[in-house]
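Model it.
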Amino acid sequence: MKAIQLYYPPEWAHCYGCGYLNPMGLHLKTYWKAEEGHSETRFTPSPHHTAIPGFVYGGLLASLVDCHSTATAAAAKAHAEGLDLETHPLRFVTASLKVDYLRPTPLGPELVLVGRAKEIKGKKVVVETELYANGEVTVRGEAVLVQITGGFGQENNAPKGG
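Modeled.
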């Protein structure tokens, strides 16, 4: 099974969290589990992802939820519309991200993120994600994602400075 992020065309594959072309990135890989109707990402934080000894930095946890949600949106929309990501790559960016830290997330165990599309409407997908450590939900997030199209992020589309 191929990770959702590996379907992103090169011009959209530079994200620090999930971009396969970012040499310093986290290289998250999210997998769509159609039979269960959700996505899954696994990630093991490194010691430098520490907030206080023994616990993961909250900014990293928010980034994991963010990147996991964008991939989930692509897979969920493709699944809902009967599209093959190989021939119809989809990429989403975050319009809104809400993260609830339910309990401290321990540093050490592999973290598992599970995401489900709550709403798919046009170019907008709302994804709910739960992050598990040692089988317990430690973080819950909701993201509003917007589908991007060809040309997004190219220099000629960047805002002009003065």
